């Protein structure tokens, strides 16, 4: 008997959603996608709240398992579908390095990105203290630049879940605050963009750009290049 395929509730304007979509594309996982429009409040519909009272995306339903955090979803999908086992290393120390970067993404980088995007939604861009958010987010850039002093990828010398989690949030922040002062980070970002799986980030990133510019009545400085290169859930 075949196993039921995972169901991913998503809005690809969300950076955490896009990290899951990138991994799904990389591992060629057969997933049923169900769109939840965050900007129309569909996450508060009764049927979705019954699945995820946290009313956030991504949400993954796989058999009897319900996961409501992108990092848990990434780990689950890697454990189930990454036959090589390199994305979520089996060895303890490399695995803890990846976990450390996943927690950095959710507690530091994404939190600061979310604060900035939420301020635009609540206040309108004209009333946002952009300089304050730039200081907070470029501090995160500096930390990531430091991680890359010792390795080519965020958690070591091979591609891991940490890179997927970080790159989608970074691509969102990069719309407003380009990486030009951080050469290692820029090199890593360029390398990530060369992955076939990065295509899963592009459409949602562009949709987020358009949505935020419409809501905030402004234009991101990197708008002209964003299509070649949200908010919303951990």
From TrEMBL:
Pfam families: GST_C, GST_N. One of its GO terms (molecular function) is glutathione transferase activity. SUPFAM superfamilies: GST C-terminal domain-like, Thioredoxin-like. Residues 4-85 form the GST N-terminal domain. The lineage of its organism: Eukaryota, Metazoa, Ecdysozoa, Arthropoda, Hexapoda. GO terms for biological process: glutathione metabolic process. Signal peptide: none annotated. This is Glutathione S-transferase E14. CDD domains: GST_C_Delta_Epsilon (cd03177), GST_N_Delta_Epsilon (cd03045). PANTHER family: GLUTATHIONE S TRANSFERASE D10, ISOFORM A-RELATED, GLUTATHIONE S-TRANSFERASE E14. Belongs to the GST superfamily. Residues 91-224 form the GST C-terminal domain. Gene3D superfamilies: 1.20.1050.10, Glutaredoxin (3.40.30.10).
